[in-house]
Amino acid sequence: xxxxLWHGWLLDGTGSNVYTARVADVLASDGHDVVxxxxxxxxxRHPWIDAIGTVSTSGVSALEPTGEGTGHGRATLLxxxxxxxxxxxxxDDYEGFDAKRFVDLSDDELERYLSANADALRAAVAWHxxxxxxxxxxxxxxxxxxxxxxxxxxxxxxxxxxxxYAMRPQERYRELARGGLAGAIAVTGSSQDxxxxxxxxxxxxxxxxVVVHPGVDALRFSPRPRxxxxxxxxxxxxxDGSTSLGRRPAIGAEVVNATVARDLSRLDALxxxxxxxxxxxxxxxxxxxxxxxxxxxxxYLGKLIPQKGVASLLASLTRTATDAAGLVVGFGSERERLQxxxxxxxxxxxxxxxxxVAAAGWPFVGDELGELPLRSEIVFTGRLDHTYAPDAVAAMxxxxxxxxxxxxxxxxxxxxxxxxxxxxxxxxxxxxxxxGALEGHVGxxxxxxxxxxxxxxARIAEGIDRLLTLDPHDxxxxxxxxxxxVSQEWSWRGTAERLLDAATRP
Length: 506
Hints:
Layout lengths: L1 E5 L8 H15 L3 E5 L13 E6 L2 E2 L3 E2 L8 E7 L4 E4 L9 E4 L5 H22 L3 E5 H13 L4 E5 L2 H7 L3 H12 L4 E3 L2 H8 L9 E3 L14 H13 L12 H10 L3 H7 L12 H9 L5 E5 L8 H7 L8 E5 L5 H13 L2 H11 L17 E5 L6 H6 L3 E4 L9 H9 L2 E5 L2 H14 L6 E2 L5 H13 L3 H18 L2 H13 L2
Parallel strand pairs: 1-2, 1-9, 2-6, 3-6, 7-8, 9-10, 10-11, 11-12, 13-14, 13-16, 14-15, 16-17, 17-18
Antiparallel strand pairs: 3-4, 3-5
């Protein structure tokens, strides 16, 4: 079958990006002819891609072979020519683009973006002869697909960010979503929660809504002895030449100076002085240091942006009764603020810490901090892609998902559970569904979750202590149980099959 996936951004770094990449990979490996229309700039990071090209009103360019491909179906990446302006839900840096929030677009900017993508999608479908078109996000994917191929010929996936950062704040996006979803064969969502939130603004979709959970690569995210996993990642990072472009060691001292000087703009500017899309050159040394320590590791994997709540996790380490090291894997616009917070906590400088908490607008106050200086070692690695991240997660005893964003699912929590890291997630939106499923499977309500909102710093600390003080035998049994559940219930093959079923149902 010829299947086309339209996605407005990249193929890693966020849940919807990863969702698109993994589904495309599985569909191609199952023998389908797959085209992904998106803005990914590094196809070499995705070996399942066979060829790349561009697409516009002029048609599809000559294709350039790349990677090893899947060896089964065909997977082609086409980049639409949309100019430099890239609308986003949450601001972050995008290589080669000027990012601007959807809610900040002028009507003319929005129309140009929608038209350019619709023209590109129409040309891609004509070239490919697509049997199935799957568009990401109620907006912009829904209206783009409606313009490009017409009603009854596409499926729309909603991911939550479209609802919270476009439809909820502005009527123009609610109107666009209604038009785009009206013509969809089906509307899928990663959880019932995200479908319900979408239906607040487009009530007519309920009869065509289908829950299609994201998946986990259980072979890649699998348990390993902690020391072995950390040393393995470190050795492979030593051989990765791209780390030379990452966060140079001297930036650490510059972060401390900017934080002590209480210069937030200077702190933020440091994040623009290196390539955030590669691992830190110091990541290997940091992982080796953790491998040589005895205390458990509490970790985070994901984007370092305000909506993900990473500052609350760092603050919670001042209140834990158990000593634990911190491992933060990821990149994003808040990286240097978080490094500044870690440095201030470690130095015991409460006044500077409280200034940074207030200046950054984090959802807690200095009074919520516990004892300083912070006892914990905190290691930041920068971005670790799919070749490294699973082993870093396997080294974590607890993986915290402290997001304050309404999430569609909780893919990272599921990946942690698969790799043997017990998850601790905020009990809201799609995250609550993930926590509820895992807690229900082991018969332990509340074990893997905490209540968000005011006072969450203390509750995260309590959750970490709750998991780290489990009897070792009990902990091992829990790890095995949640891994088995994730492997059976949340696989990418199952995700791809359910998505295809939704696209081809009568």
